[in-house]
Write a structure and sequence with these properties.
The structure holds 2 protein chains of 2 kinds.
Chain A: H1 2-15, E1 30-34, E2 42-47, E3 55-59, E4 64-67, E5 75-76, E6 85-90, E7 99-103, E8 118-121, E9 129-130, E10 139-145, E11 148-156, E12 168-172, E13 180-183, E14 189-197, E15 200-213, E16 218-220, E17 226-230, E18 238-239, E19 253-257, E20 260-268, E21 277-281, E22 289-292, H2 295-298, E23 307-309, E24 317-319, E25 325-327, E26 335-336, E27 344-349, E28 357-361, E29 364-368, E30 376-377, E31 386-391, E32 398-403, E33 408-412, E34 425-428, E35 436-437, E36 443-447, E37 454-458, E38 463-466, E39 486-488, E40 496-499, E41 503-506, E42 514-515, E43 534-535, E44 549-554, E45 562-566, E46 571-574, E47 582-583, E48 596-602, E49 610-615, E50 624-629, E51 637-638, E52 648-653, E53 661-665, E54 668-672, E55 680-682, E56 691-697, E57 702-707, E58 712-715, H3 719-722, H4 726-730, E59 734-735, E60 741-743, E61 769-775, E62 784-790, E63 795-799, E64 806-812, E65 840-848, E66 851-861, H5 869-902, H6 906-919, H7 935-947, H8 955-982, H9 992-997
Parallel strand pairs in A: 16-43, 60-66
Antiparallel strand pairs in A: 1-58, 2-3, 3-4, 4-5, 6-7, 7-8, 8-9, 10-11, 11-12, 12-13, 14-15, 15-16, 15-17, 17-18, 19-20, 20-21, 21-22, 23-24, 24-25, 25-26, 27-28, 28-29, 29-30, 31-32, 32-33, 33-34, 35-36, 36-37, 37-38, 39-40, 40-41, 41-42, 44-45, 45-46, 46-47, 48-49, 49-50, 50-51, 52-53, 53-54, ...
Helix pairs in contact in A: 5-6, 5-7, 5-8, 6-8, 7-8
Chain B: H1 2-20, H2 24-34, H3 38-43, E1 46-55, E2 58-67, E3 72-78, E4 81-88, E5 93-96, E6 103-105, H4 108-116, E7 134-143, E8 146-160, E9 163-174, E10 180-186, E11 196-207, E12 210-220, E13 226-235
Antiparallel strand pairs in B: 1-2, 1-13, 2-3, 3-4, 4-5, 5-6, 7-8, 8-9, 9-10, 10-11, 11-12, 12-13
Chain lengths: 998, 257
Amino acid sequence: MLVGACMVPTNIEAQDEPIKLKNLFGDLTARHIGPALMSGRINDMEAHPTNPRIIYAGTAGGGVWKSNDAGTTFNPIFEEYCQSIGAVEVDPNHPDNVIYVGTGETWTRNSVSIGDGLYRSNDGGTTWNKLGFEKSERIANIIVNPNNSNEVYVAVLGALWSDSEERGVYKTTDGGATWNRMLYVDQTTGCADLAMDPNNPNILYASMWEFRRTGWSFNSGGDKSALYKSTDGGATWNKIHNGFPEGKLGRLAIAVAPTDSNILYTVIEAEDDARKGLYRSDDAGASWKQLNNDFGITVRPFYFSRIVVDPKNADVVVKGGLTGSISRDGGKTFKGLGNMHSDIHDVIFDINDSDRLYVGTDGGVYRSWNGGTTMEIVENLPLSQFYHISVDDAEPYNVYGGLQDNGSWYGPSSSGGGITARDWNSIGPGDGFRVLKHPTKNIIYSEMQGAESVWRFDADNKLVKTIQPLPQKGHDELRFNWNAPMAVSTHQPDRFYMGSQYVHKSEDMGDTWTIISPDLTTNDKAKQNQEDSGGLSMDNSGAENHTTIFTIAESPIDQNVIWVGTDDGNVQVSTNGGKTWTNTTPNISGLPANTWCYHIEASVHGKGTAYAVFDGHTTGDMKAYAYKTTDYGKTWTNIITDDVEIFARNIQEDYENPNLLFLGTEFGLYITIDGGKSWAKFKNNMPSTAVHFIDLQKRTNDLVMGTHGRGVIIIDDISPLRQINQEAMSKKLHFFDSEIAEMNDNSESFGNGFGAETQFVGQNPSSQAQIKYLLPKRHTFGKMTMEIQDMNGNKLATLGPGKSKGINIVNWSYKIRQPKVAKGKTFSFGGFTSPRVQAGTYKAVIKKGKQTFEHTFEVAYDKDNKLSENDRALKHNTTMKMYDMTQELAYMVYELDALLEATPKAKVKTALNELKETLVITTGDNYVASAESQLREKMADLYAKIAGSYDKPSNNELQSLKIIEERFNKAKSDFAKLKKKAKVKDLQLKTFEDFINE
Amino acid sequence: MKTIKIILALFVASLTLQTNAQTADEIIETYYENTGGKDNWAKVTGMTMNAKVNQGGMEIPIEITQMKDGKQMTVVNFQGKEIKQGVFDGEVLWSINFLTQKAEKSDKEATDNFKIQSTDFPGPLFNYKEKGYKVELIGKEEFSGTECFKIKLTQKPIVVDGKEEENTSFYYFDTENFVPIAVQTEIKSGPGKGMVSEVTMSDYQEVEGLYFPFSMTQGVKGQPGSPISIDKIALNPKIDASEFKFPEESESGTDKN
């Protein structure tokens, strides 16, 4: 009976097996466009202990990067895992192979990402295994015993927004198989820093930190913060506070001088400002003396608390900070590090030369060659941390967005030679958030934190104006979120919305504002104490402003339907342009109260249809919440399944297929094609980075993601996903519908010149015709070929078709094969040119085994190129005439060579050789020893000139062609005469066709 | 009826168990058995492949020869001129300079690294133990939607810019057919150092009883690769040793058309 019961569902499944989208993404691949010029936040740097060429950077939201060239360039080595990194540690006993990564950044600002445990690689970062600590959220340090690789200590800072018992110092003695918690204080206090005596691995120092963040507050410090020492490998711990300030303590850092185990440094966050700062011990922690409390040493301890001691000199100390500080007198006095991006989180010294420093900042990694005085940025770390992005409808479209501590920017989605630093334009300072393009005018809106400034930039005239809504009579003081919402309207291009606790509407691009709502938040006064935030060190940055509106969406179908989501959990809707509002949150079931509404997507598929995404991570709730309504919020349906592993911030609907949705989560992108009944994680060149915002470009169907750690990531043309269904899956091969392919005449680039070799270059989209098809199963055995044919079945090009299960994308350059060129001593560079086809209808023909599959598609000319039909025809006919001439000449030279070999007559031989010397180059090389051009070169160069131009052939070119034709005709008649004279019978020659196609 | 179902269920279960218990050795063994038999593979003395690469409309014919004794060369045909690249005679690694059309030796490090792999034919996994290589089954992993066994191959270390480095690659064997459909290798030298190169394989077809992939793509992981389609594979070619020899001070571009 049991067996029978098991068999039944199997049978049902066989009939209607649900589509597993996860296996079908195939060639659909993300491309990264950066930007890298401002890079992003670095959490931890690590040096290889014996090879100075190898440097690791653990980043806040962009994974782990490894440099093999002493920090000149970096490559990502942790793509498939959580991208928020707390600590990177190289096993000193196996430094080439064994690397530990503790996830979850530890400089606990409001916008930090989360970690998901400890990882180890045994092969230098190629493959990784997880070693547990799933609930640790943040790992501050990992230390491997330099005498015993099986002994490893892990400092778990733990959860930022909730209680957690997974905190403190952990130890393994069996290489990570089992772990023991060696030091634990309570569920509010984690290990913020851990150090080992370099000369005695049983001596450890641990700083424990009491800390907590909510959506509206931050607290650093308490009775439980303390500095501990163990002399028995972590078995017992004692506080070492002799000389410490009285009262509560905050975040403490600890460092042991590598050259002298007695010298320790700590930085103390204390109640009394005068007693904060750098302390030093010269007796291994038995007593402490305060040395310095400059601003650079005491500033924002939760954000900057790292101390690093020069490996060669115990008196050279570097402290992270707003600018970073260095002391050369044992910590008594400090000077700032050289000019670089502010907010210095970590520093490492080169292992051999302390003049060489690597610094991790909020704006990437910097190098110094002179002890930190001058700094240069690493240019290939695309770690930009977007809070938000948007796109316009230019060709190519631009991407706009704001970054953590790196202002607001816009840049093109495509650029000649790739998207480089110089393609990006600054559009606002400070922390950047939302950046929106005016729907019709060349005007860009941007903002900084808390809407302190909202800029309206007239890009044509380079005029800028601040337009943020100001307090109005009869209303409370305005409360703007750190990341304040703005919105434009598709109905009224000059309309501009902003949200405080009220909805502000302007009909004149922000010149005048009207408040069109009551306070739409809970207005909970307990959550409005920003000025008290920080704990022992006041931290009133505005980052904790709460009970604010966070998202505004006007329906693209009806301008009177406006949606608003608040950071304290309200979803409000107005169906009359803001006259009245309804809070629909009570209609949502399964959502914890006051969960932050991060995004509302007003649907194009129905007036009353919208999606709402909620993020509870600032209460410690890591689940994803997304709901759909079709009746203005009267009812909401959950569209999240267990497939989604972590909390989400954003959703994007497809404009054509209502069941196709894209979900931006803390660990990457998820896609559904069944309206949220199942979700598949998209991994093709898509790291598990936090996706903060998604937009879908309407013309190109490109999915554009603003990630918080890997910049802008684009999936070009998601339209195949619309067409995946049971019917398509049931075919052996299914061609996706394709749009008209336009042959772009834009010149790609003259090259970017020199001097940018170490810069990041963002990938461009394909400019070729793309043939897309679905294979329900990978093709592995037997021949599978693809040709492009004209409608008469003539072959134009042979392409290598994709064989992947799922979506395959094959590029065709619109070109036929290059002409066969006469053989000479050197190359005819013009002869490497392939001519483009004419606009029209073509066929892609795939032969798979015995079956043939055909797909017709349209090719069009560049619509920006206004050549007339006659001009087009002239260009094509001239190009093909020269293509044919080139091949004819090739055959003639082939025949001539054969004749030369066969003829016994010396005189004829000489004459043939003389003729040949006028046809092709017979001496010299391809560079500076090149010989004078002959007929082949002249012909091919003119052919290439005409074929490669966007324009019709000029009179000058046509005249030149005449000269070449005359010379060719003469050569042909001369050759015909010599052939007769040579009197070679039965010369074995390939036919012209065979010769051309060999 | 019920009994049949139970037997069937047990049979299916045992099959599953078997697949789970695959070792790297069994997978590699099965691959060579399924593609012609190990003995037959061992008999092959060399092969020549004729292929075409297509770069933006430009079709380039190439001919790749690999011999059991480690000799190899690639001949690229440009405008009827044959240009030899990556030629190895067992001692010297050399290529024709495209500009001068003269032969030039590779640097010593590249040559030494090449030499280390000169026993690889017909593939580094073949009798890998005798070559001093190691394999490890990493587990099952999907490659582009297809379930695969992922096998890590560690060859002898190479030297890059004066420093010894581990030489590893990852083979993805289709769990259905036991043939590799992709190989990933960390790029160890040059400006791409640290990136991962990826070769995918398909269109396995028989040549004299052995199966070879007739279609490949080559590129960097995460980016579209360039397709290579193979027209012809000839086994045991007779090639004069002089073809592999470095032409001392001679002009090259052997005109054989």
